[in-house]
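W.,

You were right to be curious about this one. When I first looked at the sequence I had no strong expectations either way, so I just let the prediction run and decided to look at it fresh. Below is the sequence, 403 residues in total, followed by the output.
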Amino acid sequence: MKTLYNRVFGQYWNPVRTLVVAGIFSAAYFGLTGTVWAVTGEFTRLGGHVVEFFGGDVSGWAYFDLVHLEGSSFARSDGWIVWGMLIGALITVLLANNFKIRKPQQKRRYVQGVIGGAIAGFGARLAMGCNLAAFFTGVPQFSFHSWIFIVATGIGTFMGVKVAKTKWWKGKPKLMKGGPAPVPKREKRIVQPYVGGLIALLYAALIVWFFVTGRPLLGTAAIFGAIFGILIERGQICFTSAFRDLWLTGRTLMAKAIVIAMAVSSVLTILIIANTGMTPITQVASIGTFVGGFLFGLGIVLASSCETGMMYRLMEGQVLYLFVFAGNLIGVTALAFAWDHLGVYNVLVAGGEKLNLIPAMGPGWAIIATLTMLAGCYLFIVIYSKHKRGTLILPKGEKQIVS
């Protein structure tokens, strides 16, 4: 039993297997609820609640009508996807004895976290989705806006890497006298697994209560939210690292894992749609999709994390990501205000249209086109990785990185 526990919580999981499992559960969640795994829509509603808490009136904001700002976050299924992800990630962090308050060495990182988070949040909601709804779960819904978002995010992260490498962004390194710092011994935090187990029991009781009191949708969202939280934490799933590693060093493991998982999820989703007649979720493809995807890609690199990475890192005790989360709320709320008050919708979105590949091409061609696009992404990752590694200048005797 101890050996099994150590295998599960003593090391992180293979990201390819973990993301494939996430893709399977994502398709299953759509099949059960008719909605998708997403987070920034709920972040936007939370931003609206914050404005209301401080006395603001958002009743005239068109974007909040679009995302259905009604009731409380604890009464919405999208809310329990978010809370479930946080709780699921926290449970596994505690069971793995990995919770520890960590602060960045440079105070400027807090400001950068807010700035990057705000840019990413603004971009995500302009494109109607982040690395989930407009990327990982958007592609398997066969919404063409996800194709645009992927390209734009790639360009945005590439530019973000260029900015993050500059001296004025990185700041001056701190020089310390003496030899190398001693390697700290791993602290024995015996209480953490017990706390994690207790939280898991209480959360399971909450889920049972949802079903007993006639709220199965909330119970289902709470279950899947926790599963997604567990998976992203154990697999250390972060879309920022997938792009950043590729652009910087040619590492491909996370990027390949994302593509493979989307392919699996797409096949399962098309089978669900074909057998149930369910309507796939489609968002508007517009100039705003590209601009939003670019800003999202730029922002997540500057913030050092996408939304999923931010959530599990926050549960690990990394203080920086509290600032990234605050930046996200600022960004999504700013977009909600700018949508109609500053004419963002009329300039960037109004000319677009919803395009889904299934009604446009038929189910067969839709899945062929999607898998072909993903194969193209995979091929690009492989080719770029070989090119990048070929241009890296390594110190004598140092080996190249292998994915």
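Here's what jumped out at me. The chain has a mean pLDDT of 91. And, maybe more interesting for your project: The beta strands are 284-285, 353-354.

Coffee later to discuss?

I.
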